[in-house]
Amino acid sequence: MPKICVIVGAGEGLGQALAVKFASEGYDLALVSRTESGSQKAFEAAHQSAPNANIRFFPADATKPETLEIALSQIANEMGPVDVLLYNVRGEFTRCAPLDMSYEGLKNIYNVEVIGAFAAAKSVLPSMIKRGEGSIFFSSATAAFRGSATYPLYAIGKFGLRALSQSLAKAYAKDGVHIVHVRLDCDLDVPIMQEAYGENYDPGELANPQEVAQSYWLTHLQPKSAWSNEIELRPLSESWTY
Hints:
Elements (H helix, E strand, L loop, with lengths): L3 E5 L5 H11 L3 E6 L6 H10 L5 E5 L5 H15 L4 E4 L15 H29 L3 E7 L10 H21 L5 E7 L6 H7 L11 H12 L9 E4 L9
Parallel strand pairs: 1-2, 1-4, 2-3, 4-5, 5-6, 6-7
């Protein structure tokens, strides 16, 4: 049976790099996003890297947990049991003062960062526990460690994601499932950041998505007696924010 890697949030940045990495290592891919166009660049890059890989798209909305359950059930039925789940979804990076947060904004960030992540993990964990193996990665940020006076919604969401990841790891690592919270303390060298930096864009100051994906892969390969359940990644040029 081929190994199956699911990427929830397979956009053109880190999602694309993760798709290329795992496909090139012999995995078949299930790319999950709201629209097929949202995963198109990841699909094309992974197919170019691994022409023989089975790469498929499955629609789901991270803000609607039932759609994730349906998509992951369909993946298991049509492609096989999931070996690696990469939850690579990020909520809106909205600037506001804490007292200006809306109830709707809090609900939205919680749905994306916590409920969506839980729905995805809940869909694959029983099979992983039964087989005694599997990896689940949650892409996160240093915001999971510190509140913010200017981006409180993002911090609250990432705090929740870290708590979810740690809770799952403490409960199910003993069953052979490797659960990892990945804190990216950096800006990634992706199109949206290149545009944001404008004239100040310097690839040497940003994290290379392909090299970040390599770190995910190496963490996935860790032996069971020496697991990392939380890692932080940053380029050598990054000023530590925590």
